[in-house]
Design brief:
The complex is a heterodimer.
Chain A lengths: L1 H5 L9 H27 L1 H4 L7 E6 L9 E12 L2 E14 L8 E4 L18 E2 L6 E2 L19 E2 L1 E7 L5 E8 L15
Antiparallel strand pairs in A: 1-9, 2-3, 3-4, 4-7, 5-6, 8-9
Chain B lengths: L1 H11 L1 H9 L2 E2 L9 H20 L9 H10 L4 H28 L8 H23 L4 H14 L5 H9 L6 H33 L12 E2 H26 L24 H7 L7 H22 L5 H27 L1 H4 L11 H36 L9 H6 L2 H12 L4 E2 L16 E3 L6 H7 L20 H11 L3 H20 L7 H6 L1 H12 L9 E2 L2 E2 L12 H9 L31 H11 L4
Parallel strand pairs in B: 3-4
Antiparallel strand pairs in B: 1-2, 5-6
Classes of the chains: A alpha+beta, B mainly alpha.
Chain lengths: 194, 621
């Protein structure tokens, strides 16, 4: 290094090409190190695995009448968010629809498959109506208007189980458990989000 | 490709700008001494990039700042390295600033026509120091909190400074807005100003060219490739040191900031230590001189350098002033470290000390101050480790934040309560040196492992009962218990000794079993038979019940042995040691921490705190 520095240097110097090359490489490295160290952290959410969906108790079966109409229930679950763990609190909502004579209700997530808005239903309505982009669904979850609907698929059904649970008092109750999960919106296929 | 570049170049002049930059003339050719400015630009951009990524994970509020930094440091992949680079680059920047300034002043690069560029450089320096100061608070740990609160309190000394202080911290007290304001300064305003002045600095630098050093000796050259290569190598070296430190040392994260818990080891970052040390030399109302006047004067002299430098001797004065300044700062830094680590470096026994009484007294004072500092650091480290362990447990951090988590934790909070309320008298040291606590002047029993078999065996040891570990420092030194142990256990015939020692072991096991310690539960269960024998001895052969109550029998001269060391016993004892169950007549200085059951506000500690303390003494976590 010192040798080359002491000789008079001009742009056309024979070693200039090599030194240019090294200078460029070094420039690249010193730019890359901070950027790469940041990108590793920035991209870490993609590498993080979410918790797999679990069955969550929603309501006792007797509060879901078999009238074929939607009934909305909050999903109450302990939630983790980065460094925090929250005690059980509502984290979303589901509609339970129990067809006449059926022992097991159908569960729909309240999230619209179109763009993820919260699908609305008021007592007296004859359909589910999304407040955002006109998607509407029948009480069995099928799109009204079929492929003409803005929604790419029918309402997302969730897995349901009715389990017998015993309360502390010894009373035996039928409880509706729903596997609460989120799905990719805007797609024809129903793909669960991990 | 070339066509595209030409097309862009023709319209923007980008190519010309680049060429002008790369082929800038350097009279006398490339030199290593010109690299400092470039390394500073590198460190600034490193901070900008790493800071931007840290920003994406940082959350400025008193309940999320420590928590989010913890998450970056311990949960996010690569987070520790990223934060380490940001942390150590800040230090590197200060070092490089000093070198750059020194080189500029010694080379006289502030002289006409470069005065403005020198002033801009000084503004840049102040901005970098401002960034360092604001960044130190952001993790919201004990260290940053207490050091920064000192710094902001000092601004209150300046005329109108109280208003500045309140504006800086967003109110009269530290809180959410302190963090949002410091963060906005650190990540918004100061970098924007820095960028602005950096552009001016570089533009003026390009206008005036490099201040060549002995340019006549050698041929001129252009910046590219030789000077660029030298700059690059220097930058690479800086980066290597920073990354090395980040991997090897990691950026520290202390325990969550707690305004209610004083932190005796509050020190600013090392490059501000000289200011911290200087304040020690100004007493009372003179503090203003050390905190505001002298620093302001130094900055003023720096700003006047280009004007002073016009006189013949002016330049020499400037160079001498700067070297003196760095020398003084270096000396003060050394002094600060020397005082803090005095106990580590000069841990000499008093008996080995020579010299007059005054020197010995000074040594004692220094030793005491240094031990306080080291013990505060030790405590802070334990607390930080505990906070990090709790945050990493499956329960994670509650929404109320890490401080509330730590305050509800027996291991951390119990230790803190013991430190604040019990170490005035009680020692706490034993086999696990990590748990040991520094107690400056112990004057009561050592409670490490209280009520365990070993602890009680020591109490029943005639050699040890009147030693410092038990009653030696208290009024009980010549009490009846000491007398009894010395007579009945100490003065037995040689042939009986083995038998008596075996009985002492049984009694110790029996008494210790009263505590129902979690750490001894298995042992107690296994030795149920021995314990029963011990209990019988306690009542009969040892006749403890002649002075103590035990299982509903006995006298009340000494403390009740029923449930000795149990949670309930400890809570009752700490609440009121003069209660008739314990030492109604012979209590030696132990205060009642919760005497007033009917008026809890008059008690020193709440029942909950005493409960935590009892749990902690019993190692129940």
């Amino acid at each position: 290094m010192t040798n080359t520095a002491k000789t008079p240097v001009t742009k056309a110097d024979a070693g200039a090409g090599r030194r240019s090359f090294f200078a460029a490489i070094i420039g690249f490295i010193i730019g890359l190190v901070p950027l790469a160290s940041g990108l590793v952290v920035f991209l870490s959410p993609l590498r993080r695995k979410g918790r797999s969906a679990e069955f969550v108790p929603i309501a006792t079966l007797d509060v879901v009448p078999d009238d074929g109409l939607p009934h909305r229930f909050p999903v109450i679950q302990a939630r983790e968010d980065a460094w925090n763990r929250y005690p059980p609190a509502p984290i979303g909502a589901v509609y339970l629809v129990r067809p006449p004579g059926s022992g097991v209700p159908i569960a729909f997530t309240a999230t619209c498959p179109h763009a993820g808005c919260f699908i609305g239903y008021r007592v007296g309505d004859e359909k589910f109506q999304c407040p955002c982009h006109t998607s509407a669904f029948q009480f069995d979850g099928l799109r009204i208007g079929g492929n003409q609907s803005v929604a790419p698929r029918d309402m997302d059904r969730l897995d349901v189980e009715v389990r017998q649970t015993t309360a502390e008092s010894g009373l035996s109750l039928d409880k509706v458990f729903v596997k609460f999960q989120r799905f990719q919106t805007g797609r024809h296929e129903k793909t669960p989000l991990a | 490709m070339k066509q595209l570049l030409d097309w862009i170049g023709n319209r923007t002049g980008a190519g010309d700008l680049l060429r002008a930059g790369l082929y800038e003339n350097i009279p006398g050719g490339a030199r290593w001494r010109y690299v400092w400015g470039s390394t500073l630009v590198l460190t600034f951009f490193t901070q900008l990039i790493t800071g931007m990524f840290l920003w994406m994970a940082y959350s400025p509020s008193t309940q999320t700042a420590w928590e989010s930094v913890y998450y970056i440091e311990h949960q996010m992949q690569g987070g520790s390295l990223l934060r380490g680079i940001h942390h150590f680059t800040a230090s590197a920047m200060v070092v490089l600033l000093a070198l750059h300034l020194m080189q500029v002043v010694i080379d006289g690069a502030y002289r006409a026509p470069r005065e403005f560029n020198f002033w801009i450089g000084l503004i840049l320096m102040l901005l970098v120091l401002g960034l360092a100061l604001t960044g130190y608070l952001l993790p919201w740990d004990q260290k940053g909190f207490w050091a920064t609160s000192v710094a902001t309190n000092l601004t209150g000394l300046a005329p109108g400074g109280e208003a500045v202080r309140q504006l800086a911290i967003g109110g009269t007290n530290y809180g959410h807005h302190t963090l949002t304001r410091f963060f906005a300064l650190h990540a918004g305003l100061l970098p924007a100003l820095l960028m602005f002045f950096l552009v001016l600095h570089l533009a003026l630098f390009r206008r005036h060219g490099i201040t060549a050093h002995r340019a006549k000796d050698r041929a001129a050259a252009t910046l590219w490739p030789d000077q660029a290569l030298k700059d690059g190598v220097a930058c690479l070296a800086v980066l290597a040191v920073v990354v090395g430190l980040a991997l090897w040392q990691k950026a520290e994260l202390g325990a969550p900031a707690d305004p209610a818990s004083p932190y005796a080891a509050a020190r600013p970052e090392w490059y501000f230590l000289f200011l911290f040390q200087m304040l020690k030399h100004f007493t009372g109302a003179q503090e203003f001189i050390g905190a505001i006047f002298i620093p302001a004067l130094v900055v003023l002299v720096l700003f006047l350098m280009p004007l002073v430098g016009r006189w013949r001797l002016g330049h020499r004065f400037n160079a001498a002033f700067l070297l003196t300044l760095f020398g003084a700062a270096g000396f003060l830094t050394y002094q600060a470290l020397h005082e803090d680590y005095y106990a580590t470096w000069h841990n000499v026994e008093e008996s080995q000390l020579a010299g007059d009484e005054k020197a010995i007294q000074r040594h004692r004072d220094r030793l005491a101050a240094s031990r306080d500092f080291l013990s505060a650091r030790h405590e802070a480290r334990l607390e930080a480790e505990r906070a990090i362990a709790l945050a990493g447990s499956p329960r994670k951090i509650p929404p109320t934040g890490a401080l509330s988590m730590l305050r509800a934790d027996i291991k951390a909070q119990g230790r803190r309560l013991f430190r604040d309320h019990c170490t005035q008298c009680h020692a706490f040291s034993g086999t696990d040196t990590n748990r040991n606590m520094y107690v400056a002047r112990p004057s009561a029993s050592n409670l490490y492992g209280f009520a365990t078999r070993q602890w009680i065996a020591g109490l029943l040891d005639p050699q040890r009962i009147d030693g410092d570990h038990y009653f030696g420092l208290t009024a009980h030194k010549d009490g009846e218990m000491v007398e009894w142990v010395k007579e009945n256990i100490g003065e037995v015939d040689e042939e009986d000794r083995a038998g008596v020692m075996a009985e002492v072991e049984l009694v110790a096991a029996a008494l210790s079993a009263q505590a129902k310690l979690k750490v001894q539960a298995e042992q107690d269960q296994r030795d149920a038979e021995k314990i029963a024998q011990g209990e019988a001895l306690l009542k009969d052969d040892f006749a403890c019940i002649e002075c103590h109550r035990f299982g509903g029998e006995g006298e009340r001269e000494g403390p009740d042995l029923t449930g000795y060391g149990s949670w309930e016993w400890l809570v009752a004892f700490i609440s009121s040691p003069e209660h008739e169950r314990f030492y109604p007549e012979t209590n030696d200085r132990m205060p009642s921490f919760a005497e007033h059951l009917d008026q809890p506000q008059r008690n020193t500690l709440t029942q909950e705190q005493i409960g935590i303390l009892a749990d902690w003494l019993r190692s129940e976590w």
